[in-house]
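User: Please fill in residues for this 57-position structure.
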């Protein structure tokens, strides 16, 4: 058995306005979640020893 696979057919390099809007919404959502995760991680790290800190992990 070989691992060779035929190349995929070329796709369009263009994005539709709907696709762009979807990506913009996802990006804003990820930045919002990043702020929450950073705050939670900072709070967990402030508790001291990270080797036994389940919240930090």
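Assistant: Residues filled in for all 57 positions:
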């Amino acid at each position: 058995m070989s691992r060779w696979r035929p190349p995929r057919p070329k796709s369009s390099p263009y994005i539709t306005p709907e696709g762009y809007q979807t990506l913009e919404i996802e990006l804003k959502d990820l930045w919002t979640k990043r702020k929450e995760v950073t705050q939670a991680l900072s709070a967990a790290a402030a508790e001291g020893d990270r080797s036994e800190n389940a919240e930090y992990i």
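For context: The mean pLDDT is 83.
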